[in-house]
Amino acid sequence: MTNRVLVVDDDAAVRGALGQTLELAECDAITVGSFVAAKDLITPDFDGVILSDMRMPGRDGFHLLRYAREVDSELPVILLTGEGDIPMAVQAMAEGAFDFLEKPCASADLMVVVRRALKTRALVRENRALKSRLESGDPAARMIFGTSLQMEELRARARGVAATGAEVLVTGAPGGGISKVAEVIHLMSPRSQGPFVKRPAAGLSPDGFADLCRAAAGGSLYLDEIAALPSETQYAMLEALEQGLDARVLVGSVADLAEAAAEGRFLADLFYRLDVMRVRIPALSERPEDIPVLFSHYVAQAAEQAGIATPDIPQEHLAALMAQDWPGNARSLMSAAMRFVLGMPEEAAQSAELGLAEQLAQVERSLLIAALGRQNGNASAAAKALKLPRKTFYDKLARYGIRPEDYRR
């Protein structure tokens, strides 16, 4: 995480004291005495935050704030104000200042705000890096999310096995995106122009497997939850692989296939044939540093689907998410993002504690919000979309404290 802070204050003594406080807190302080001196440092690539005095000769803190927001609207600017500057500081907050602190300011209070701003800046930059990879990268960069070392290694592994023609076994915990990784491998392989045929392995007959191989000719066949493949089809599949296919076979499993083969629940020879190239997806519990970026991405997706402006995510909320194990992995994090966007309970446990009437009320509230979001806050149009009389619709809005104007873009 970035720890750079640009301090702008015309008072050399104050500037020095602020710089010392920041350095003691292990921040990288850059101190300057005016807007002119700060201007060249405020660029879209600046990875830190700004701490500026409100009143300075010439160009004041207001001017600096406006300039910084023109350069980068998401660059946090913290303003230091005198007692008489509070109304100005409130106005500055309305214009986009991250926060303001009244002078003199205790070091502990200063660092609470600065650290919050630094975390916000780091998250913004991570989201931008992710978006850049999604827009310009290869399928591994666009479709496999996460900035942790584990996910960098997963993308590298997917690229490596994609170049081969061998069978691939993709493993991971439930909800980890096994089928998506299999698709990435196909899209990065020499067969990417051919079809990608996906089918659950459960209940697949030998004839059905043969039909799928023909449909996937020139491309890839992906069988999900391969441990559930019927035994007679396992033998047929092994024979087909040994004779040669015009389709690359990719399989996925959340079960321990090696254990199943050792216990006789899966054909051992087929397991060894499929296990030529193994790709393991790390669970979210192994890479909690990915959770803030992933959750922010899913919140933006959920808000777009619901027609709602993307809400701000408090740092405290992200910290709470990182403290959880997420046994459902990406899928459960997506669900949490949707609940967050729609104002529903954050935790499944919290939801489970509610009675039926309360749970139904939460669902009803979320549907009202989603309808308003899709209709740009137009209550009449939202009521019509939900097929509710206008009076009934407004009564429900009043009951849940929902204001249509909050959903106008």
Automatic annotation (TrEMBL):
Keywords, A to Z?
Answer: ATP-binding, Nucleotide-binding, Phosphoprotein, Transcription, Transcription regulation, Two-component regulatory system
SMART domains, per the entry = REC
- Please list which residues make up the signal peptide: none
User: Locate the Response regulatory domain: which residues?
Assistant: 4-118
Pfam families (UniProt xref): AAA_lid_14, HTH_8, Response_reg, Sigma54_activ_2
- GO molecular function per UniProt: ATP binding; sequence-specific DNA binding
Gene3D superfamilies given in the database record: 1.10.8.60, 3.40.50.2300, Homeodomain-like (1.10.10.60), P-loop containing nucleotide triphosphate hydrolases (3.40.50.300)
One Gene Ontology term from the biological process aspect of the record: regulation of DNA-templated transcription
Give the highest taxon in the source lineage. Bacteria
Looking at the record, the residues that make up the Sigma-54 factor interaction domain are 144-342
Q: Which residues carry this modification: 4-aspartylphosphate?
A: 53
Q: Which InterPro entries match?
A: AAA_lid_NorR (IPR058031), CheY-like_superfamily (IPR011006), Homeodomain-like_sf (IPR009057), HTH_Fis (IPR002197), P-loop_NTPase (IPR027417), Sig_transdc_resp-reg_receiver (IPR001789), Sigma_54_int (IPR002078)
Keyword Nucleotide-binding among UniProt keywords? yes
What's the name of the protein? C4-dicarboxylate transport transcriptional regulatory protein DctD
Which organism does this record belong to? Answer: Phaeobacter gallaeciensis
